[in-house]
Amino acid sequence: AQSVAQPEDQVNVAEGNPLTVKCTYSVSGNPYLFWYVQYPNRGLQFLLKYITGDNLVKGSYGFEAEFNKSQTSFHLKKPSALVSDSALYFCAVRDPRGGGYQKVTFGIGTKLQVIP
Amino acid sequence: DAGITQSPRHKVTETGTPVTLRCHQTENHRYMYWYRQDPGHGLRLIHYSYGVKDTDKGEVSDGYSVSRSKTEDFLLTLESATSSQTSVYFCAIRKGQNEETQYFGPGTRLLVL
Fold first, then answer.
1. C-alpha angle B33/B108/B76, rounded to 5°?
2. Using 50, 70 and 90 to split pLDDT, how confident is the model at B99?
3. Do A46 and B102 touch (CB under 8 A)?
4. Quick one: which of A8, A18, A47, B76 is 20 to 30 A from B56 by CA?
């Protein structure tokens, strides 16, 4: 069974400071990993994904994430937070060996609050 | 946003009534999904479709049915709405079998009284 954990319900960071939103996962094999962002009253928007290759993945809006297999983590980072980054962030995982409908498991979300 | 619309965007209904939510896409993608979003649970898959008239159950399918008679439309029906089905419902598409990213619609907020 695959699972994903986002250990922080909320992360507060001052504008201009670096931010990290944590994600850990559990799958049997090599994972596919994703980050999505949700702004109020909107659907989820894709930020970035790790499928294979370089462990550091760069995505939209200056975000990046590092795949760490030994720690089973895929933390989302940004060097300098903007107030407009305030949103709900979801980590997701898929076991590519899962077959069927290629189920993606989402975390419960982390609310990021960037303080001016 | 991959040309995905959902209707209605908001709905209030009473327990025991049937409700149908519509997802419409303009790009003729094969794979479509219905999720519900609830606090503390993230997104959970209700049903999915891999082609016209090809659908299957997700992890929380009890009380829901779906239909896909055209590529562009994926309908979710709550057969007899219950208060536990109060939620925000999202439709998503995947652009191809080898495309891992899902693209989401704007959501439907459903309140069952």
1. 45
2. confident
3. yes
4. A47
